[in-house]
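Sorry to interrupt, but I need a hand with the structure work. Leave the record below and I will have a look:
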Amino acid sequence: MHQRLARAAVEGIPLTLRVREPRAGEHAPVLTGLFFDGDRRAEGPLESARGALFSRFARELAEYLRGERRAFGFAWAIEEGTPFQREVWRALEAIPYGETRRYAELAQTIGRPRAVRAVGAANARNPMSIVVPCHRVVGADGSLTGYAGGLALKARLLALEAASSSSARAARTGGAPRASASRAW
């Protein structure tokens, strides 16, 4: 299926969005990749991110980066990766907003406690940065470790989520349901 690319600065963060047209049964374009500058998976002819195809994705990402959104409502799909990588990416998706996990905890979660380095490698190949929150994984001692967008951005995202999560907990009297994006694996 034909994939289209657009580069956009969303809240000051240069991103490349990879989108495909909807398939039978789908009602909207599907985000299949969200990459930071320099990622080779995002090379190819670029279109304007201001077009209708890309605008919803960019708007929701901007809302997230301003702390106005916790989950994405657009359709997205991961259409690449090995079975192991996909298992790690599913585990990343399960890390709650405002929380972190260590690589070893993620390896334990998927039932592969000795695969800590492989989990780190799969994390680094995540094709859906921010949406599948690989930024929520930290080192064994809780320190910030590698992130394709850079450690400053990782710190920014974690601080944004922590502040937003604390504010929401203080304001909420009951549990709020977690919004969920339309996605496919």
